[in-house]
Amino acid sequence: MPAVALFGCDASPTIGAGHVMRCLSVAQSLSRAGWSCVFVTNPEAVATVPNPMTSGFLICTAKRTGGVRRPEDRTHAELMYAALAGRNT
Asked: DSSP per residue over 19-55, as a string?
């Protein structure tokens, strides 16, 4: 089983995309070395930085709506744990 790297990073037009882009660079290097890479991010990041979506990495999104937590709104930590455990996110 390959090693797994989990990247928790957000992006949006307001906060920018620098963190996601730096994580993507590290993920690409790890992937070439045989690692499996997973991104846990906010939904806005997928629209702001589409590169991870086209790079073949697993993308898990976590969102909050109006401060009220719904069952389908999972935190970054929950999504990372699920990805590491190999569960469908």
From this structure: HHHHHHHHHHHHHHTT-EEEEEE-HHHHHH--HHHHT
